[in-house]
């Protein structure tokens, strides 16, 4: 998805490194093998050390790495050139769509960080991948994650692949505002559990955003949708588990299969109707 070069980017709601709240010490499994478990744990405000083997202990004080310089993020042309500016422009776009679709919508905060960051849910490292913390209403992104998706999981490196990740985390914020985010705690693991339904709904909400952004500005380019679909497929539970351990355990699923993530993203993208994203009422995921 290419932004109009003359559009103005608003960075006022973006923090370039650092988090909010003291949190508490957590142990985070190294590498993306622990992504699924750790993200859902942070999402629920659960201490991941209770579910992930300790490899690296981060103290309760939290150590913040240098953040991003966003002074060069001014226009859509900058968003098309620099990944950090693209994240900011995407948050602007996603906020604009949800302000139209959801009465009373209030934007989340967004923090860009390198290495590790202090959050309201506790300290976190880049190994976790992008995540949303409901305690401080903040979406966290280390843009190096996008290259990891390409190098390790074969995702597209195209703009919509990156923007899909941003829109997905903002989908969790929408769930938080609607009071649905806590439903992830209902059977948080398992192929049909609350964790999977929560993540697939966020995928669908990402598709809803893409539909409305394109309808308004006609900014989807050839290959964009395919790139977004490849990004969704690359982070399916079955794909991640095959990469990490060579086999799949559906009872441990927290995000859904690659096929499911693609399908629910497409469902939101088809008509832009958030009512079509009711994964909790769906008999078949």
What would you say this structure looks like, in words?
The protein is an alpha/beta fold. The radius of gyration is 17 Å and the shape is globular. A four-stranded mixed sheet has the order 1-4-8-7. Strand 7 and strand 8 form a beta hairpin.
From the structure above, extract its key features.
alpha/beta, 4-stranded mixed beta sheet, 43% helix, 9% strand
Indicate the topology.
Elements: E1 14-16, E2 26-27, H1 35-43, E3 57-58, H2 76-81, H3 83-101, E4 109-112, E5 116-119, E6 122-125, E7 131-133, E8 138-141, H4 144-153, H5 159-178, H6 194-217, H7 224-234, H8 237-245, H9 258-271
Parallel strand pairs: 1-4, 4-8
Antiparallel strand pairs: 2-3, 5-6, 7-8
Helix pairs in contact: 3-5, 3-6, 5-6, 5-7, 6-9, 7-9
Question: In summary, what is this structure?
Answer:
The chain is α/β, with parallel strands linked by helices and 285 residues long. It contains nine helices and eight strands.
Beta fraction: 5-15%
Tell me the overall shape: globular
Largest sheet: 4 strands, mixed
Report mean pLDDT, rounded to a whole number: 77
Low-confidence stretches: 18-65
Radius of gyration: 17 Å
Give the helix level as a range of percent: 40-55%
Distance between the termini: 27 Å
Number of helix segments?
A: 9
Order of helices and strands: EEHEHHEEEEEHHHHHH
Strand order of the largest sheet: 1-4-8-7
């Amino acid at each position: 998805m290419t932004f109009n070069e003359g559009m103005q980017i608003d960075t006022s709601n973006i923090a370039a490194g650092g988090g909010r709240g003291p949190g508490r010490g957590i142990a985070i499994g190294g590498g993306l093998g622990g992504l699924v478990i750790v993200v859902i744990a942070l999402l629920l405000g659960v201490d991941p050390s209770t579910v992930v083997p300790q490899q690296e202990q981060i103290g309760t004080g939290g150590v913040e790495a240098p953040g991003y310089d966003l002074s060069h993020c001014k226009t859509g042309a900058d968003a098309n050139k620099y990944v950090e500016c693209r994240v900011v422009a995407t948050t602007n776009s996603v906020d604009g769509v949800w302000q139209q679709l959801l009465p009373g919508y209030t934007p989340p905060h967004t923090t860009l960080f390198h290495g590790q960051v202090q959050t309201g849910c506790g300290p976190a490292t880049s190994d976790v991948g992008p995540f949303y913390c409901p305690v401080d209403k903040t979406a966290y992104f280390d843009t190096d994650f996008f290259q990891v998706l390409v190098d390790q999981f074969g995702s597209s490196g195209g703009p919509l692949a990156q923007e899909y990740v941003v829109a997905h985390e903002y989908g969790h914020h929408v769930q938080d505002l609607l009071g649905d985010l806590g439903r992830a705690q209902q059977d948080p693991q398992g192929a049909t559990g609350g964790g999977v339904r929560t993540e697939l709904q966020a995928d669908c909400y990402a598709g809803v955003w893409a539909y409305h952004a394109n309808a308004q500005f006609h900014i989807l380019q050839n290959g964009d949708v395919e790139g977004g679909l490849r990004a969704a497929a690359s982070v399916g539970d079955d794909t991640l588990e095959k990469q990490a351990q060579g086999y799949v355990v559906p009872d441990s699923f927290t995000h859904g299969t690659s096929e499911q993530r693609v399908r629910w993203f497409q469902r939101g993208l088809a008509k832009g109707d958030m009512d079509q994203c009711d994964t909790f009422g769906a008999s078949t995921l």
